[in-house]
Amino acid sequence: MLPKQEVVAMLLAGGQGSRLGVLTRNLAKPAVPFGGKYRIIDFPLSNCVNSGIETVGVLTQYQPLELNEYIGNGQPWDLDSTNAGVHVLPPYQKNKKSDWYKGTANAIFQNIPFIERYDPEYVVVLSGDHIYKMDYSKMINYHKEKDAACTIAVYEVPLEEASRFGILNTNADGSIYEFDEKPKVPKSNQASMGIYVFSWSKLKKYLEEDDENPKSQNDFGKNVLPAMLNAGERMFAYRFEGYWKDVGTIESLWESNMDLLNPNISLDLSDDEWKIYSRNPVMPPHYVAKGAHVQNSLVAEGCNVYGEIDFAVLFAGVYVAPGAVVKDSIVMPGARIEEGARVQYAIVSENSVIGANAVVGERPEEMENKDDWGVAVIGPGCTIPPGTVVEPKAMIDAEEVK
């Protein structure tokens, strides 16, 4: 038995992220680059550290290699202590058979032995694909005050979008009396953020019962939470009012990156009181050449900018040639935008090359039919030939341009 930890966090990072298309073909969604110098997983990991949570299990499954390498020993997030720290937890073989994680609840169930080593009072279950800053300690204190078995973080969404989420219906004291997973006709706009605080003794009981049910999908939203509610357990909603975005689609990933350039958005990466930590490449300072034009953009280390960028996010090692224009776009590590190329409303993945005078994406106001507009995506390692036009909504894979 290791030294007791009052709280253990379990970070679900094994999803395939299929809606991100070529961006996650060979990469786990939490490892997708974000914001010029981060990966998506940096946000929940940093939240844990800033909230005083010292033990974090990261449950990986789909395309875990790069994510595992990125997390390493947890040193960038100060999660490398001897008796606590971050632990990567892939599925493993037991009872002479190999079990993939069959659902969110099953992933935690399979790691009960890991949790038990720390004998925690509370377990925080997190998702690895959301962008937000949150003090989990405040939610844990709320959970204690309510003497709850389960507390669910909720975020108010527009009612017309509520059917995409698990929706909570609550009493005046915040207690939950109904939970609807993606209802066709939602009764409220209180959406589950996929962030849970459980009293460990209660959660363990329901995980074991769920595993014994052959009809269960082994999912928190579909099975475990309704089972707890039907049994009359004390369940409460914890309201979150800061910035939060699920970046599970191309559009939401692009929007969240662009939000970093909007002074009216509350996600502040310069806040010294709540830093977002990351593992960074060792590269020289960025260089902006004479005659280049840089406006309202994030430019990471190792970039060389000779052209024009406006409302853009450039990751480490990006090259923008003379005469090239990048607007309203995300350009990921090591990509090159060659002379005269124009990139707008697009995501250009790692180590891609946009050939001279190529055009990627289009401004919506310049289109005859705005319904045809969408973010253009260039996959990792692609080379777009000179003069090529890549239409809005296009998603280009390296195999397509060989």
UniProtKB/TrEMBL annotation:
It catalyses: alpha-D-glucose 1-phosphate + ATP + H(+) = ADP-alpha-D-glucose + diphosphate. Its EC number is 2.7.7.27. Residues 292-366 form the Glucose-1-phosphate adenylyltransferase/Bifunctional protein GlmU-like C-terminal hexapeptide domain. Residues 9-261 form the Nucleotidyl transferase domain. Keywords: ATP-binding, Carbohydrate metabolism, Glycogen biosynthesis, Glycogen metabolism, Nucleotide-binding, Nucleotidyltransferase, Transferase. InterPro entries: ADP-Glc_PPase, ADP_Glu_pyroP_CS, GlgC_bac, GlmU/GlgC-like_hexapep, NTP_transferase_dom, Nucleotide-diphossugar_trans, Trimer_LpxA-like_sf. Homotetramer. Involved in the biosynthesis of ADP-glucose, a building block required for the elongation reactions to produce glycogen. Catalyzes the reaction between ATP and alpha-D-glucose 1-phosphate (G1P) to produce pyrophosphate and ADP-Glc. HAMAP family: GlgC. This is Glucose-1-phosphate adenylyltransferase. It comes from Neglectibacter timonensis. The lineage of its organism: Bacteria, Bacillati, Bacillota, Clostridia, Eubacteriales. The gene is glgC.
